[in-house]
Amino acid sequence: VGPIDGNCQQRHATLGDRPPGDVSVKRLESLDDLRVEAQNAGLADLADDELRFLKRYYDHAYAMNALLAEVDTSDAEPATVFKADAPS
Amino acid sequence: MMTTIAEVAEHIRARELSPVALMQRTLDEIERLNSSVHAFVTVCGEEALAQARAAETEIAAGRYRGPLHGIPFAVKDVYQTKGIRTTAHSHALVDWIPDEDACTIARLRDAGAILAGKLATFEFSTGAAVEGPFPPARNPWNLAYTPMGSSSGSGAAVAAGMVFAALGGDTGGSVRLPAAACGCVGIRPTYGRVSRRGVIPLSWSLDAPGPITRSVRDCAYVLGAIAGYDPEDPASAKRDVPDFAADLERPIRGMRVGVDRAHFFNSEFVEPSVIELVDRALEVLRAQGAVLVPVALPMLEYVHAAQNIIHVCESHAYQAPRVFRDPRKYGPTVRAYFRLGAFLSARDYLQAQRVRELIRREMVRAFGDVDVIAAPTLSRWAERFDEVDTGTRFGKLTGKPNLMIPFSNAGVPAITVPCGFSADGLPLGLQIAGRPFAETTVFQVAAAYERATPWHTQHPKMEALA
């Protein structure tokens, strides 16, 4: 972790660093859990075969998030492509 | 037509070869081969011939524009083409006709190149090889195999000799992967080097358009034409465009080639036969005076996860309105993939971007000690169509690592150049990555390897394809 100046500290405090290992969303263990979450997200009436396919992807994504949560990123600002002087 | 741009351009410039004859021959080859290779989803026959006639007139009048003048090319069907349908290989866009060319296509037209048609891709650059409204492109080296993707048609069309160059799009390797699997050269330029304007986005912060060709020099020519600042692309870099071909003949004696064996040569994830061939390729570089230097990139343990979470979230943000409204217009793979972002949080996305920044820093630090990093392009050989598993697209977590993602994630340039064949005749690529905006160095090392080896002179058996 490199040096952090006052402005950086303030910015990080605003973003809210999470402790290592903290995965932000609850794991959806079952197909029914995923179905409820899908409905909440606006994906109503997914057939069971669609949900099963989605669950395979979801399980991978959850595992990837858990892995990334191990990393101390307190010194890293996310990359963006925002440019204040871009053409309108 | 297995010649290169560099070879035919000399004849065009000297008026020994007519662009009209060249385009007619290109269209004949497409007609002859496409029913087996399926690289093209749209062919621009009449329009291409009209442009070839205009090029011929211009050259005859003494207005030769350079090595791409009169050269047929094609693009992955995610590049917008004015007046020509642009489908992304999806039922969702199957009738869409844009009213503007992508920036890259406009630049190739300015250089005098002629669009011969649009090429197959995996649906929206990320779906399965076998989904969408058109037949999937097939690998010209063996039609039972995929050309890999997502720029599947781009790799297949160039390898089969249907065009001299094709544009693909590289988010996590989709230029280098089909280029390597089809025995071609392909480069992912530095993020921001080439405008993304007019290319259907997959993942805004990762997408990099790039060319596939049959030689390193041709690749340098095409990149030279499409690179450069575009004020209308927010990610475009204000950088001068050097002559990418300037150092192609320069010896590589004394250059330092970084090798991270722990990540890129790990036999737990990389086929031993692939490691063996790429080790031989490294020896070719060493024999020319390059110095092989061990490098360590331990943050790459996280690179697949960071790449995929970013990719999932950004593609969800772009596609969600349409995929929620018309899910049946998407194949099952992209439908699930584009929905997945609904289950991830803003914090997940930003953590992935922050990890990515740490990966980038580590790689840039490594480039302080070496000129390039060399690695296999592929961890395994191209897959057969009957082995395609649409549920295992997340790389390392399923035991099939993507060795191109580290350079995509860091945004640095990386090229693939043919480096041999499997026992049953499938091509493989040597990957060479460089510092940000050091494409000229990457081309220099790739050209040195190409000069010393015969792989680029070998081509699929065309009689088996027709």
State the helix count of chain A: 3
Along the chain, the helix and strand elements of chain A come as HHH
Reading side by side through the largest sheet of chain B, how are the strands ordered?
1-3-2-4-6-5-10-11-9-7-8
Oligomer state of the chains in this structure: heterodimer
What's the shape of chain A? flat
Sheet/helix structural class of chain B:
alpha/beta
Beta-strand proportion of chain A: under 5%
Largest sheet of chain A: none
Residue windows where pLDDT falls under 50 for at least 5 positions of chain A: 1-20
Contiguous runs where pLDDT drops below 50 for at least 5 residues of chain B: none
Q: Work out the radius of gyration of chain A.
A: 18 Å
Number of strands of chain B: 11
Largest interface: A-B, 40 and 42 residues
Radius of gyration of chain B: 20 Å
Describe this protein's structure:
- The complex is a heterodimer of chains A (88) and B (466).
- With 88 residues, chain A is an all-alpha fold.
- Chain A has helices at 6-15, 31-40, 48-68.
- The longest helix of chain A is centred in the middle third of the chain and has 21 residues, at 48-68.
- Chain B has 466 residues and is α/β, with parallel strands linked by helices.
- Chain B has an eleven-stranded mixed β-sheet with strand order 1-3-2-4-6-5-10-11-9-7-8, sandwiched between helices.
- The relative contact order of chain B is 0.14.
